[in-house]
Structures are given as structure tokens and as C-alpha cells.
Design goal:
The complex is a heterodimer. By secondary structure, chain A is mainly alpha-helical. Helices cover about 70% and strands about 0% of the residues of chain A. The chains are: A mainly alpha, B alpha+beta.
Chain lengths: ~180, ~280
């Protein structure tokens, strides 16, 4: 059971990071919206993951994406911050109402409104940190905010699509 | 002391968080371009092979337009061939042999990775040190200026294009020959900024900007762009000019790497001259 969980997460890591590096890093919707789908991996780590291991995993994940984009540090920074925020928000948003052991946070494992809010907040935090670092000027605050918001919405929709496409099958098979 | 231990235990995740973020910031800050490209050199080799594979497929999509450019360029080059001129005397060829020495030679390369909407863009080409590409060589496209080689592995090179916040090139107005600097302040990849042109010269929209040849890397007269818009900066005596780049960085496939045969000689002369000042 436990090893199955680990393998599933490793599989998700490979799938999402490869998807990010090979596909989404080459996509700029409207010229500047770059969806960061791999953040979903951090959002979906098992709830039993400790806070420090989670940040280390996020750091490594961010670094993996960074290496492929020629700009070191930006994804790493934002990703680690997301892992930190997840540690706080997971308790407040999801665990609070589901104390009977949620394994992997997803649309199907917890109340979907909660998960969608949780995911949106994480993605928005990621995007705002990422774009602020990238642009690094307060003069362009509103354009950063706008870009981050659009990028969050696109990534959010993609993440929901990902979960509905890939998880429903898994849920059906595990329920039977 | 016990309280300190307790505090650390209780907030160990915050401490770990701060530590990791400091490392990430160090990664960002320390990565001036040269260090960065050294670190990602290994990554480049892997990514280069991948992107080469991808661009062999995606290259087909732009093939028609690319062929048209190449055909147009071929035609232009053919027009310059000796056979295109009527020879009034044989001396033309003697002059060619003895007085002219080849200064620039061109290596064609294919762009296999290209970014144009970040603040610091880079591109990768499929020629490296094994094909004679060296750091600091100029890169041009059939339409105009592209950038400068900043790093080479055996078979790949990375290029800092004009679309990079650190790039700065010496250019001039074709009509008046007044020189200025080409910079890029981010934003739209179709436009760049030209500074340091004194307001003593009148400007017109669509004036052509070409490379000045004052920096060693670019041959003189390579197209850079056309004036889109200009304002004179109050009190400075210089224009701030927005130019439309001649090169379409969104659609860049074939480029030429320019080898300046006299670069070493020019550089060493410059070193001696500057060394003599001290």
C-alpha cells in the first residue's frame, strides 16, 4: 500500500515534470502566459509527508524544471515557497473537515470546492512569486499581477482537466 | 538554552524553509550569464539533443517560408557574383587577389531552441566548437542582426540575442551615419530601443538602422531595424528611439555565425593600446 503510494507519486512527478519541460515550457498563450502544471505535483503530495521533506522535494522539483529552462533558481524559489504555504494551508483548508485520513489531495478525495480553492491559492502563490522574481521591478506590479492571475487560471483549468482525465479512472478501479 | 532548543524544534520547518530559499536566491543571484551557462552546460548537451529532434519535426512547418527567404538570399548573393558583372578589364580580379583579404566568413547554423518572451532570452544553435564557432562571434540571420555567441560545447552553442536585458550593440543610422547603442528593455520581442543618438540629427519614421562595424564582431551594414517612434529625452540632448527589429525572433530558423578573421589582431592591438595608458 505504502510502496504503491510512493510509486504513484514518482510516476506523477515524472509525468508532470516531463509535461512541463517538454510541452508547457514551449507554450506561451497570448505571448506571455506560461502554464506551470507541475506545481500540481506539490499540491498532490500525500498529506502524511512531513513539512521539511516536502520542501526538499519541492526544491528538487523546482531545480529539475529550472535546469531545463537555462535560468536557475526561479522555479526552485517559487516551488519551495509553495511547499511551505501548502504546509500551512493544507491544515486550514482540507484537513480541518476531513480528519479521517485523506491520502492524496484531489478533487475526488476531498470536497471539491475545498480542493479547488486550495489548488487555486497554491497556484496563485506560485505564479505571483515566480513572475515577481522574473520581472523584478515594482513599477510593473499590476502587469505582474495580471499575468500571474491569467496564468493561474489557465494552469488551474489544466490541473482540473488533468485530475478529471487521469484520476477518475484510477478512482473507479480502486473502488471496485 | 532549553527554550532555544525547543524553539528550534518547534520552528524547524520555518528554518529549513528560509535555508532553502536562501539557496534558491543564491542560485538566482550568482547566475550571471557566464556562470549559469557553465552550470547548465551538461543540461544543454541533453536538452540540445532533444531540441534537435524536436526541431527536425517542427522545422517542416516553416519550410515554405524558409525556402522563400533562402531563395531570395541566393538571388541577392548571385547578383554579387563576379559572373554577374560585366568585366571591363582583367584588373578587377588581380585587385581582388592582392588588395582584398577576406575579413569575414560565415557558417550557417540552425536554431534548435529559441526563447523570446523572457527578460533574458537565449537561443541554441546546432553548431559548436567542432564546427569552428567560438565565443563572442556575431550571429546574423538573412533578415538582420541576431546576437552574440556566449558559450560553446562541441556541437552546440548558446547565443545571447538582442532580446536580452544585458545585450548592447553599436549601431548607426544608415542615412546620417550617427552611431548609437541598441538595447532591449524587455516586453515585446518585435521592438528594441536605440539610445545615444544626439538630437542634432533630424529623424524620420522608418529610417533604417544598421550595424556600425565599430565593435569587432559584426560586419558593417547588417540590417538592425527601422525607426517606429522617437522622443527626445528632455535636457539630455539624446533621442530615445523605439525601433522595429528587422529580424523576426518568433520565426527564426537559419542563422549565420560570423567569423572575423582579424578579431585576434584587433583585440591584441586594443589591449596594447589600453595597457599603454596605465
Amino acid at each position: 500500500m505504502n510502496s504503491q503510494l510512493i510509486f504513484r507519486n514518482i510516476g506523477r512527478f515524472l509525468l508532470l515534470v516531463l509535461l512541463q519541460v517538454l510541452v508547457f515550457n514551449n507554450i506561451y498563450l497570448g505571448g506571455y502566459i506560461n502554464p506551470c502544471i507541475y506545481v500540481l505535483f506539490i499540491a498532490m503530495l500525500p498529506t502524511t509527508t512531513g513539512r521539511i521533506p516536502m520542501m526538499l522535494i519541492a526544491f528538487a522539483t523546482g531545480l529539475c524544471v529550472d535546469v531545463s529552462t537555462n535560468i536557475l533558481g526561479f522555479h526552485t524559489f517559487a516551488c519551495t515557497a509553495v511547499a511551505f504555504l501548502r504546509g500551512i494551508w493544507l491544515d486550514k483548508i482540507i484537513i480541518r473537515d476531513n480528519d479521517d485520513g485523506v491520502e492524496t489531495p484531489s478533487i475526488f478525495s476531498v470536497a471539491y470546492q475545498q480542493f479547488l480553492i486550495y489548488l487555486f491559492l497554491l497556484l496563485f502563490a506560485f505564479n505571483i512569486i515566480y513572475y515577481t522574481l522574473l520581472v523584478f521591478s515594482f513599477r510593473e506590479f499590476f502587469s505582474v499581477l495580471f499575468t500571474a492571475l491569467l496564468s493561474t487560471i489557465v494552469t488551474w483549468l489544466l490541473a482540473i482537466l488533468y485530475q478529471t482525465l487521469l484520476l477518475r479512472k484510477m478512482k473507479n478501479s480502486s473502488a471496485q | 538554552m532549553e527554550k532555544l532548543g525547543e524553539f528550534i524544534r518547534k520552528h524547524s520547518h520555518v528554518i529549513a524553509f528560509i535555508l532553502l530559499e536562501v539557496i534558491a536566491v543564491l542560485l538566482i543571484v550568482q547566475n550571471t550569464f557566464y556562470q549559469r551557462s557553465r552550470i547548465v552546460r551538461v543540461g544543454n548537451r541533453v536538452a540540445g539533443t532533444w531540441h534537435k529532434g524536436v526541431s527536425t519535426v517542427t522545422g517542416y512547418f516553416g519550410l515554405k517560408a524558409e525556402n522563400e527567404y533562402l531563395a531570395a538570399e541566393n538571388a541577392a548573393l548571385r547578383a554579387q557574383m563576379a559572373s554577374s558583372y560585366i568585366s571591363y578589364s582583367d584588373s578587377v580580379f588581380q585587385v581582388n587577389d592582392t588588395v582584398y583579404k577576406q575579413r569575414y566568413s560565415y557558417t550557417d547554423a540552425q536554431v534548435i531552441k529559441n526563447s523570446y518572451n523572457q527578460a533574458k532570452n537565449y537561443m541554441m544553435i546546432n553548431k559548436g566548437s567542432a564546427q569552428g564557432v567560438k565565443v563572442d562571434m556575431a550571429v546574423i540571420s538573412p533578415k538582420g542582426i541576431v546576437g552574440v555567441v556566449v558559450n560553446c560545447t562541441k556541437n552546440f552553442s548558446t547565443i545571447m540575442p538582442v532580446l536580452h536585458s544585458d545585450s548592447r550593440h553599436s549601431v548607426k543610422l544608415k542615412r546620417t551615419n550617427s552611431t548609437g547603442s541598441l538595447i532591449w528593455e524587455g516586453g515585446d520581442y518585435r521592438y528594441a530601443t536605440l539610445i545615444d543618438i544626439p538630437t542634432t540629427y533630424p529623424l524620420y519614421k522608418n529610417d533604417t538602422i544598421v550595424t556600425s562595424g565599430l565593435a569587432n564582431d559584426f560586419p558593417e551594414g547588417i540590417a538592425v531595424g527601422y525607426i517606429e517612434d522617437f522622443t527626445s529625452v528632455q535636457g539630455s540632448g539624446f533621442y530615445n528611439i523605439r525601433i522595429r527589429l528587422a529580424t523576426d525572433f518568433n520565426n527564426l530558423n537559419h542563422v549565420y555565425v560570423v567569423d572575423n578573421h582579424f578579431k585576434a589582431e584587433q583585440d591584441s592591438l586594443m589591449r596594447i593600446t589600453e595597457g599603454g595608458d596605465e
